[in-house]
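Sample entry (140 residues):
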Amino acid sequence: MSEQARGPLSTERLGFVDSLDEVLVAPDFVLASSSLQYVDDFEGYFSSLLALGAQFFCIDRTPMAKDGASGIYLQRVFRNDGQWQYETSYPLFLHAESRYLEMLSEHYTLMSTSVLHDESKMSNAGKENYFFMLGLRRQR
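Predicted structure, serialized as tokens:
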């Protein structure tokens, strides 16, 4: 996907890479939107994102366990909006909100947090886990 975006969307200030190893300068902003729950090596990948040294970091549309209990869930998707009608499912890793905050706290200050009520609620054995948005600024 980044290869397709490189040509028409790249500018002096906006670039696309296939790997974090290709990032040569600390970005102003890292957006992890509905992606971290699908990464196999969460700790390693998240640490690599933090090591980029971005001024701002946003985690958006990401399910987090409020009670600290991490686990694997099956996400079921039902879509019926016009031409797109399908049903599918795939696994995701639910990580504890406290683990995200622990990893971020060394270099970032929490600016805002919110529960995204318009997103699907995940539940397992009566425990509810919501999608969150965290906005952070790099400590000076």
